[in-house]
Amino acid sequence: MNNQQQISVGQLVAILLTSRLAVAMTFAPTVHQLSHGTDFLLSILLQALLLALLLLPTWWFARRSEGISTLDYAVAVMGKGGGAVAVFYGLACLYIQAADLIRFSRFAASTLSPGMSREMLCIVLMVTAGIAAFYGIQAIARSAAIIAVFVVATILLAALALLPRMELINFPPLLYDGGSPVLAGALEELPRSMELAVLGLLIPYVKGSLIKGSLWWIGIFTAVALVIQATVVGVLGDFGAMELFPYYTVLTTVQVSVIQRLDIVATAIWVGALFLKMAFFGMLFTDCFQRVTGQKWRMLIAATGAVITLAAGLLLGDAAPLQAEQRIIWYASAVLLGVCAVGIPAALALWDLWRHKTMRQKLGPAEGETT
Fold first, then answer.
1. What are 127-175's pLDDT values in tens digits?
2. What are phi and psi of 105, to 5 degrees?
3. Which residues of 132-209 form beta strands (DSSP E)?
4. Of 271, 92, 300, which Cα lies nearest the Cα of 197?
5. What is the dihedral of CA 278, 223, 215, 87, to 10 degrees?
6. pTM to 2 decimals?
7. Sign of CA dihedral 7, 13, 17, 20
8. What is the pLDDT of residue 20?
C-alpha cells in the first residue's frame, strides 16, 4: 500500500468519532430500562473500559503482523479460507450500514416533517455515500475532520445553552439500585461501537499507531457521550426514558441567539455524520468483496451493497416494534463485534505464533545455541 492511501492517527480518530457519534446523537433509551439517567453516566465510563479491553486482540495481532491487516494476512496464509474471511468482513460492513439506515429511516418517519419523504432521504443518502466511497479513505478522512468538529461543537453549544434549564433534582443518587444497572447499561451500549469490528482492516491504512488512535477515540467519545447524557438527564429527568429519541427532544427546546431551532441544525449535521459513516463502511465493504471477485467487479459490488442496504432500510425500518428491532440489532451486533474484534484478530495472532514456532522447530537451534 502506498503512502497516498494512508491517513494520520488524527484523521483515524476523526473517522471513528464521527462514525460513532452518528449513532450516539439519536440514541434511544436502553432496551431493558435497567439504569436510570445518573447511573448511565457510570455506564458510559464502564463502557470505555470495556472498549479498551476489546482492543487487546487487535493490538496483539498488529504487533505480530507488522503493518498487515487481518484480511491481508488471512488471504495470504489461508488461501480459500482467507476468501471466507473477506466475505465475512464484507457482510459485517454491509450489516452495519443496514442497521444504521434502519435507525435513520425510523428517525425520519417519526420526527422529521411529514412533508419530507424518508424514502427519498434514504436514496439520496446512499447514492451520495456510495459516490464518496470511491474517492478513498483519504477523502473520507478529510471530510470526517470537518464533520467531527461541527458535531462536537453542536453538542457542546446545546449543553451550554441548556445549562440554565438543568435541575439538580433530575440527578438521582449514584448506585441507588446497586451496580447491576450500571453494568447492564454498559453492555447495552457496547455493541453500538461497531467501529471496533473493522479496526483490524485499518492497520495498513494508518501512519502511526492504530491502537493509540483508537484509545484517543474512546476517550474523546466517552467525554462527548457524558455531555449528551448529562444534558438529557438535567433537562428531562425521568421523562427521558419515555421519549423515543430523548436527545433530539432536548435539542428541540434550544434557542441560541439567531438560531431559533438548533434541532434542525443538529439534524443536518447528524445526517452529514451518517453520510460519512455510510461512505466509510461502504468503502470497506467493496474492498473486502473485491478480494474475492477481483478489481473489475468493484463498481458492481458497490452498487449491489448500496441496493441491499437501501432495501433493508426502507423495508425493515418499520417492520417490527422498536423494542423488538433494538433487541435483534443488539444481539446481531454483539455477535459480530465478538467475532470481528476479538475472534478473528486473536485467532490470526495465534496462527502466526504457531507458524513461527513451527518454523523455528524445523530450522533447529540457531548457530551458537547449545542443545
1. 999 899 888 899 999 999 999 999 999 899 888 888 888 888 878 778 7
2. -60, -40
3. 206-207
4. 92
5. -20
6. 0.89
7. positive
8. 94
